Amino acid sequence: MFIRTESPLTFVRSYPIVSTIVAVHILAFLFTTIPHPLADRFLDTFVGFNAAIAEGEYWRLATSLFLHVQFGHVVANSFSLLLFGPMLEKMIGKKLFLVTYMGSGILANVATFCFAPIIYSHLGASGAIFGILGVYSYLALFHRQLVNREEARIIFSALVAGFAMTFTFPHMNTIAHLFGFFSGAILAPFVAVHLN
User: Fold this and answer.
1) 149-168 vs 71-92: helix crossing angle, rounded to 10
2) Is-contact 176 126, C-beta < 8 A?
3) Known active-site residue 177
């Protein structure tokens, strides 16, 4: 389920949404970390900054999902997406996967806007990835024919580890992680309708 044996080309063809999102992660990371005149302006324009969102710059709720400024951050989020994204993309299809991924990530950022300070700035795909885990958790509990016991054990182990890091490591967007998970779980019943 979560172990990939495809060649890179086969993987890209089989899971185009996951592959595209990871590619955007990497390209955006390189664009913002390799020194050039537009790097800072790019970040200033697209990062999730609550004060700017309050002024009507709502695109930041979506664009911040693709931005990372630390190597470990982009690697961890991209690896998590490569690990957990393909099966869900295959199960629910490309369009619904994209809607679920973006929907849970944007809702996580809306929660960050609502509950974090006005000067709070944030970026990263973690909220959307926790959304994927929220969908899986719902399926593991209520659609056990789709997620077997071993798969459920892996999902819940990843979830426990993710929340442990959320509440242990500094500078984590706890709000986005929590609400990303809850958003995925809330969206999951609508996703499940398309699996029956």
Assistant:
1) 150
2) yes
3) yes
Helices then strands, each counted (H, E), the chain = 10, 2
Active-site annotation holder among 126, 143, 157, 183: 126
Summarize pLDDT for 35-72 with one digit per residue, the tens. 888 999 999 999 999 999 999 999 999 999 999 999 99
Closest by Cα among 112, 119, 124 to 46: 124
14 is known as an active-site residue: no
pLDDT in tens, 96-120: 999 999 999 999 999 999 999 999 9
Q: Identify which of 124, 129, 107, 93 has the alpha carbon closest to the alpha carbon of residue 17.
A: 93
**pTM, two decimal places:** 0.94
**Any idea what the Cα angle at residue 36 is, between residues 35 and 39, rounded to 5°?**
85
**157-189 burial string, b = 16+ CB within 10 Å, else e?**
ebbeebbeebeeeeebbebbbbbbbbbbbbbbe
CA angle 49, 27, 123 (to 5 degrees): 20
> Of residues 64, 121, 177, 183, which has the active-site annotation?
177
